Known about the structure:
By secondary structure, the protein is α/β, with parallel strands linked by helices. The protein has 2 domains: 4-134, Rossmann fold; 154-211, Winged helix-like DNA-binding domain superfamily/Winged helix DNA-binding domain (Arc Repressor Mutant, subunit A). Helix content is 58%, strand content 12%. It has helices at residues 13-25, 37-47, 63-73, 88-97, 109-120, 128-152, 157-166, 172-179, 183-197, 202-211, and strands at residues 4-9, 28-34, 51-54, 79-83, 101-104. α7 crosses α10 (202-211). 30% of the residues are buried.
Amino acid sequence: MDEITVVIADDHTIVRRGLRKIMEEARVKVIGEVSCGTDVVKMASELQPDVILMDIEMPEMDGIEATRKIKQENPSGRIVVLTMHEEKEYLFKAIKAGALGYVLKDRAPEELVETVKAASKGMSLLQPSMASEILKEFAEIEARKDEQFRLYSTLTIREKEILSHLTQGLSNKEIAKSLFISDKTVRNHLKNIFDKLHINDRTTAAVIAIRQGLA
């Protein structure tokens, strides 16, 4: 098996030294260490490590933004976030930014090593509680989509026409002129649309219209 190469990004020297020892004992080669987000983005480009161990809270650029930038420059980059943050919002942000793994700093070294090895193969390895949170989030997203579609299906043909024009950034006056109706009629239609979709602004209405293929 080829040697796995890793870059460690953490702003605490003691943490980096501890991580290096854990990696080297597992026969994972540490080819670089950095203490800030901007440096890890640069090092990732220069060294092309198999895996990057990424802290979240770092100076100049946090680990989430650094992960996002690395993935933009190199979509195949493999990043494992190592942090003290248990809150699911950080987990979701890291995964959305492109991280393959998310490990808490209080976990056993063996778990971190296994996550790094999995990431080096392009696989994601999350502890069960985190995987459950992600599955719940996906389920909630799908439920919101289903509800949104149900509400959208209650709109009349004319209301859908209004929504379609809304996605083009047209004003009420422009919509009225295009559909040969009055400004007041457009306002009434928009009120009905907002009520049916349980929203209160044009931007959200336009987003829903785009998702439903009206743009």
